Amino acid sequence: MKFFIDTANLSHIKEAHDLGILDGVTTNPSLMAKEGIKGEENILKHYADICALVDGDVSAEVLSTDFESMVAEGKILAAIHKNIVVKVPMIKDGIKAIKWFTDHGIRTNCTLVFSAGQAILAAKAGAAYVSPFIGRIDDSSWDGIALIEQISHIFSIQGFDTEILAASIRNPLHIVRSAEAGAHICTCPLDSIMGLLKHPLTDIGLAKFLEDAKKM
Ligand code: E4P
Fold this sequence. Notes:
Blueprint: E1 2-6, H1 10-19, E2 24-26, H2 29-34, H3 40-53, E3 57-61, H4 67-78, E4 84-89, H5 92-103, E5 108-113, H6 116-125, E6 129-132, H7 134-139, H8 144-158, E7 163-166, H9 172-181, E8 185-188, H10 190-195, H11 200-213
Parallel strand pairs: 1-2, 1-8, 2-3, 3-4, 4-5, 5-6, 6-7, 7-8
Helix pairs in contact: 4-5, 5-6, 6-8, 8-9
This protein binds erythose-4-phosphate.
């Protein structure tokens, strides 16, 4: 399973990259706003800065919701760097735009996916990635991991090559369960990735080894 980091924060991206396990980055308008990135020129520069840090796919989201504007925006985003994947919302014009991008050699990530039906439509349109938001599904007392399992089953029996990108990860267990459920990629905040490191028996065991090493 690949690891993407879900942030527009350059120091978080660098920290995950320095671990040596980072395969890509996802952003969204909320994450860009959180970093105070404003105005077209700054937005495009920020995506270029992320691409310079990480040698892997970087999802950049369109801000418009009609077909023509999404295509125009996506062309500009895709021209920033070869690793840019245009992130498109799961709406009717979004599906049309994903098909257009697919036909023109531009890779897409279909975002805001909350059902297997939506995932099938995105795959049919040729999305490179489909992003089920498992944390937000759990928040509404549905089962986000069950959706990953369902999409994984459907894509495998139908032979879709769209990759399942488990998004809206809230904790390390979401990462482990997404891996079990067949997600190809997890996009996670830095603290969820770092949370995978933690186990009290590791800390206790290391303290003992270091203590005993003094007797060697
Ligand atoms: C996915 O690409 C989104 O950016 C993200 O995972 C949404 O997560 P949230 O539900 O924590 O906002």
